Amino acid sequence: MLTLPTFADVVAAAERLKGHAHHTPVLRSSTLDTRLGAQVFFKCENFQRMGAFKFRGAFNALSRFDAAQRLAGAIAFSSGNHAQAIALSARLLGIPAVILMPLDAPQAKIDATRGYGGEVILFDRFQQDREVLTREIAVQRGMTLIPPFDHADVITGQGTAAKELFEEVGELDYLFVCMGGGGLLSGSALAARALSPGCKVIGVEPEAGNDGQQSFRSGAIVRIVTPKTIADGAQTQAVGEITFAIIRRDVDDVLTVTDAQLVEAMRFYAERMKMIVEPTGCLSLAAVCHAGVPLQGKRVGVIVSGGNVDLQRFGQLVGNST
Ligand SMILES: *Cc1c(COP(=O)(O)O)cnc(C)c1O
Prior knowledge:
Elements: H1 7-17, E1 26-27, H2 30-36, E2 39-44, H3 54-63, H4 67-72, E3 74-77, H5 81-93, E4 97-102, H6 107-115, E5 119-123, H7 130-141, E6 144-145, H8 152-169, E7 174-178, H9 183-195, E8 200-206, H10 211-218, H11 241-250, E9 253-257, H12 259-273, H13 283-290, E10 299-304, H14 311-319
Parallel strand pairs: 2-10, 3-4, 3-6, 4-5, 7-8, 7-10, 8-9
Antiparallel strand pairs: 1-2
Helix pairs in contact: 1-3, 1-8, 3-5, 3-8, 5-6, 8-9, 9-11, 12-13
Bound molecules: pyridoxal-5'-phosphate (PLP).
């Protein structure tokens, strides 16, 4: 039997994050409210440290290390926001960190991870199995592996964003959350069940990578091949065991949106709200606008998960008119 983290663990995570994570703003758009006839509250984790909510889970997990773990350090494999979150959290806590990244990861991401103080080890993803390699290095150096989502301290750290949202705006009818491996969604659901019991919690995935929706609807974890989508933070092949157990219990539905709908949401954020949001961060708003959920007269929370997209790519995506 899995022991699942609880809302009390989210509260404890919030205490650890105090003074370290930003309390991100909740923004509104009267244009959108008018269009939907609803009240929409955007929790803007694109303004979190290192540009995404992942700082919360990483910092919470590393804060719980004992003396021996701190000395040996943390190890993670990621080419995305989790890498930067671990590198930055480790630096702030004075803990060594090793991040395994594929040789062909964007140079900007490798540089950003190094810039936060992480030791980057590059591997050939066509020749080497990153999980095997990570385990080898972890054993050699006595390092603790922190996975990107399927870990109780990561999940409860991520849940602190939704906790802040409910504490600031009160109860909601709906909460829309971007979904990859389900760490943000399961943590948000723990917060919602405690602070706004009637709130419907909706996970949102890219249509091309709907493993979470298939898993949610079939009741067993479905694994898919790495999906082709612009939502690079949601290219996970399967949800985690812990995240899935919470999602099955506490989430109301998992919906999907297309890449074209993500681009439209990206444009809306840029034009109307003056924010740069990365494609994965646009999942929640895209579902609010396109997934057919009747929101008239409702109070709706939208978690904006991150803003890390290089400007050239941002320009390519939002610049081409559809
Ligand atoms: C990692 C990530 C996600 C997905 O989070 P999970 O916890 O894996 O579901 C969504 N948006 C951004 C910006 C991310 O970095």
